[in-house]
Structure formats: structure tokens, C-alpha cells
UniProtKB/TrEMBL annotation:
It comes from Persicobacter diffluens. GO terms for biological process: cyclic threonylcarbamoyladenosine biosynthetic process. The lineage of its organism: Bacteria, Pseudomonadati, Bacteroidota, Cytophagia, Cytophagales. This is tRNA threonylcarbamoyladenosine dehydratase. It comes from the Bacteria. GO terms for molecular function: tRNA threonylcarbamoyladenosine dehydratase; ubiquitin-like modifier activating enzyme activity. PANTHER family: TRNA THREONYLCARBAMOYLADENOSINE DEHYDRATASE. Residues 12-240 form the THIF-type NAD/FAD binding fold domain.
């Protein structure tokens, strides 16, 4: 396997740590604004095995913030488009692409289908997010969960903390509430921003799968959150305290 393309990473990490990443398997669920960038960061770091999951297609409105969204691929599957991009980055990548929205039984089946070293939850709707998280925790799978990037403008406010320490984030608050009902109050990292949101920028929508509202989003915030999510995974895989 040619690792010339990873020579800068090897200069930083050393060969042993690069080997550890090459032998790691990361599962990413949700490949939108945050998830797409987080996934590419994982691949470019040299993780050797990845499973990527998303049932959505690329929409015109995705182009302001999503990595794979282009005029030329509007209407195509996000997972397929991102998968092709990842293989162009690392042709030796062991990649599984899952083109579907996961129901509760399918989440369980997915988590039991292989040995995952880390799970990245980049789902932007509450119910499947809760189900993925609870099933990861019940299986003792290491997990990091991305909260909302929409409505925010200041990347310096992005934070990494245990879910119990998150605050001033509506998605994190709703997530905590749902998890508390199941007796879960802590135990996994979240990437969130406590930046105040202009609620007049949130709009109710109808007829979209898994969506009840949309919020204004600037181009650079999802990549920033995605990079933070990826950093949690990479550092944890390398045995660093996160």
C-alpha cells in the first residue's frame, strides 16, 4: 500500500500511530453539512476502514454548505457521491456505503454488522439520533455526536464536552430530555455551540423526510463543526485524552 500521500501526517504522528488509524473502522451516520466534512477529515487522516450512511439526495439548497453538493450532481445520492470522493483520496480505503435512512431495527442491524472502533453521529433529526446514540451506548461503542451548526456565525464558540455539560443549544437540550427518560445523563462527547440563535431565521417546512424545520446556515460553520467532530475521533483512536 502506497502511503506517500500521508507523509505529512506521518511527520506529525509517526508511523505507529498512522498504522493504528489505518487499522481502525469508523462509522459515520449523516453526511450533510457537518457529516460530509467530518467524513472527509477522517479519510484524509488515514483511517483505513469506513462505513458511511445517508439516504438523502443532493438538493440545490445544499450547495452553500455541503462538501459534495455541486450543480452537476444535483439529485444524486449523497453517500455515493461522497464515497467516490473518498476512494479518490485513498484508493486503498475499505469503504462500505449505505444509501438509506435507517429505521430503528436497521440501526441495530448496522451496529451489529461489524466491529466499529468509533461512531460519528451527524444526524440532524432527533428520533433517529436518539436511537443511534442509545444503541451505541448499550453496546459500549465509542461515540461523538454533532449538534446543530445552523443559525450560528462565530466558530470560536464551538465546544467539545460531555452531553451533560452542553448548554444553550436547542438540539442538545431536546436530546438530553429524551435521553433522561431512558436514564442516560452522560457518557459521550458532543460538539456544540452555545451561540445565541435568531429564532426568526427558523422556518417550519412540510413534506420533507425527517424534517420539521429549516434554519439559515452560513458556509463555514458546518465544516468547522465537522472538523471538531473528526478531531475527537482521531485523537481518541490514537489514545489521547479528549
Amino acid at each position: 500500500m502506497d502511503r506517500t500521500w500521508l507523509e505529512r501526517a506521518e511527520l506529525l504522528l509517526g508511523a505507529d500511530k498512522l498504522d493504528k488509524l489505518a487499522n481502525s473502522h469508523v462509522l459515520i451516520v449523516g453526511l450533510g453539512g457537518v457529516g460530509g466534512f467530518a467524513t472527509e477529515c477522517i479519510a484524509r487522516a488515514g483511517v483505513g476502514k469506513m462505513t458511511i450512511v445517508d439516504g438523502d439526495t443532493i438538493d440545490e439548497s445544499n450547495r452553500n454548505r455541503q462538501l459534495v453538493a455541486l450543480k452537476s450532481n444535483t439529485g444524486k445520492q449523497k453517500a455515493d457521491e461522497l464515497g467516490a470522493r473518498l476512494m479518490d483520496i485513498n484508493p486503498d480505503l475499505n469503504l462500505r456505503v449505505v444509501n438509506q435512512y435507517l429505521t430503528d431495527p436497521e440501526i441495530q442491524e448496522l451496529l451489529d454488522s461489524d466491529q466499529f472502533d468509533y461512531v460519528m453521529d451527524c444526524i440532524d433529526t432527533l428520533t433517529p439520533k436518539v436511537y443511534l446514540i442509545t444503541n451505541c451506548l448499550s453496546r459500549k461503542l465509542p461515540l461523538v455526536s454533532a449538534m446543530g451548526a445552523g443559525g450560528r456565525m462565530d466558530p470560536s464558540k464551538i465546544m467539545v464536552a460531555d452531553i451533560s455539560k452542553s448548554y444553550n443549544c436547542k438540539l442538545a437540550r431536546m436530546l438530553r430530555k429524551r435521553l433522561h427518560k431512558q436514564g442516560i445523563r452522560k457518557g459521550f462527547k458532543v460538539v456544540f455551540s452555545p451561540e445565541d440563535i435568531d429564532t426568526s431565521r427558523v422556518f417550519e417546512v412540510e413534506g420533507q423526510t425527517n424534517k420539521k424545520s429549516v434554519i439559515g446556515t452560513i458556509s463555514y460553520m458546518p465544516p468547522m463543526v465537522g472538523g471538531m467532530v473528526a478531531s475527537v475521533v482521531i485523537r481518541a483512536l490514537l489514545g489521547e485524552k479528549v
